[in-house]
Amino acid sequence: MSIDQLKFWMRALSAAAVASSVLALSACGEDTAGGEQGTDVEDVQEDGGEGADVGSTVTVSSEVTEVLSSQSFRLEGADDWENDPLLVVSAGQANVSEGDVVEVTGTVEDFDYTTYSEDYELGDEGVYEDFDDQRFIVADQVSPVASPSPDE
Predict the structure, then answer these.
(1) Which is more confidently placed, 152 or 89?
(2) Cβ distance 61 to 36 under 8 Å?
(3) Of 44, 71, 113, 147, which is least packed with CB atoms within 10 Å of its CB?
(4) Contact 110/135 with Cβ under 8 angstroms?
């Protein structure tokens, strides 16, 4: 193999390496089509360590998996098969539907149905049974997250 051929192949391999690095790094970007942004759902649910403390303000972006009432809904984390759903309650109408990707900013609290049922018009206690003594978010703001266009 001549030196010119060797230079050609080295440049081709270098270009391929750069292109694959760019693709790999772009795959690490934030996913707004249901992926979490900001604080992870799992971080809200964890006690201590890296978990969000009760009373702290967090912002979570994720997909609405179930609407429980006009003022409450649940979100799933990125690994929804491993984690419990996260309850979100809002002082006003949440205006969300199942499948919506939303950004929620609010305060992390421990859920107790009797404490929150009247102020947040929660309705049937049985619907919230699985959330007792779990961390949840009292939302100050619930905003839709724009889904990427089909071209992206």
Answers:
(1) 89
(2) yes
(3) 147
(4) yes
3-state secondary structure of 12: helix
Predicted model pTM: 0.69
Given CA atoms 57, 58, 63, 65 in this order, what sign does their dihedral have? Answer: negative
Nearest Cα neighbor of 96 from 57, 134, 65, 59 is 65
Pairing of strands 57-69, 101-110: antiparallel
Which pLDDT belongs to residue 55?
A: 92
Q: Which of residues 52 and 117 earns the better pLDDT score?
A: 117
Position with higher pLDDT, 147 vs 56: 56
CA 136 to chain centre: 13
